[in-house]
Amino acid sequence: MAEPLLFFDLDDTLLDHRGAERAAHEDLFETKPASFGGVGFDEWLSAYREANAALWASFGRGERTRDEVQHGRFFDPLARLGLPTGEADALGDLYLARYAERWRLNEGAEELLEAASRRGVVGILSNGFRELQRGKIRRFGLDRWVTVVVLSEEVGAMKPARAIFDAAWSAGNGGQKARKVYLGDSFETDVVGAKAAGWFPVLYNPDGGEVPAPVLHVRRLADAVPLLT
Questions:
Q1: Along the chain (229 residues), what's the average pLDDT of each consecutive run of 10 residues?
Q2: What is the CATH number of the domain that holds 90?
Q3: In terms of domains, do 23 and 9 share one?
Q4: Is 169 found in the same domain as 92?
Q5: Is there a contact between 141 and 20 (Cβ–Cβ < 8 Å)?
């Protein structure tokens, strides 16, 4: 029988993306206060996240290029809040540097991957730009356990599209009868996408938020270990 495929989302599943994102913006507010013109931090962060989500959705539909997403990351929320946009690209570069300094694994991530490596083929399946996502994997040495990395930019499809899950199945040399488990934090992209592609989805739900539909979910990464078999 083929080895099971045990794949994991990266941002906000194995790694605390939102925590690093928030900390990086706090750093920007402290070092470049004039760039934000008196706008409150929470208002700025909300505008940034809303604009960034819209940019990635457009990118996933093929309506925006990579360069447009990178430029719009700061240009769009600055413009929306009526702030000067001349430093948008410089702020974006500074943000990425501060963001990388703030990367942290979520509690239990290494233990989960180690346990998975004793049970099957371990992979990471993630949306995002290749240099950032592969940089995170290198930073924490996740390749000690992860043997397959499938990224949206390299595949040309973003979760929840079936194509990226099929690419993961192919990269993991999964047989038709191989068990396929995918753990991620987003119901819309991870659970819905995985289920539609024939994977067994597990939702990482650390805050215990309401789940839109019945799905197996865990609040701690350690709780996912028994589900790998």
A1: 90 98 97 94 97 94 94 97 96 97 98 97 96 97 98 95 96 81 96 96 94 91 92
A2: 1.10.150.240
A3: no
A4: no
A5: no
140 and 64 part of one domain:
no
Task: Tell me the CA distances in angstroms from 35 to 12, 19, 79, 105, one per residue in order.
Answer: 28, 22, 12, 30
Of the residues 78, 101, 124, which one is the last residue of a structural domain?
101
Closest CA to 7 of 116, 111, 138: 116
In sequence order, what DSSP letters do the residues of 69-80 get, joined into one string? HHHHHHHHHHHH
Q: Are residues 111 and 96 in the same domain?
A: no
Q: Which residues contact 49 (CB under 8 A, 6 or more apart)?
A: 21
Q: Report CA 123 to chain centroid distance, whole Å.
A: 14
Residues 152 and 72 placed together within one structural domain of the fold = no
Q: What is the pTM of this model?
A: 0.94
Measured CA to CA, the distance from residue 58 to residue 52 in angstroms comes to: 10
Range of the domain at 119: 5-16+104-228
Same domain membership, residue 144 and residue 62: no
Question: Rounded to an integer, what distance in angstroms lies between the CA atom of residue 229 and that of residue 216?
Answer: 14
Q: Are 61 and 152 in contact (CB under 8 A)?
A: no
Q: Given the structure tokens 């979760």, which residue do they identify?
A: 159
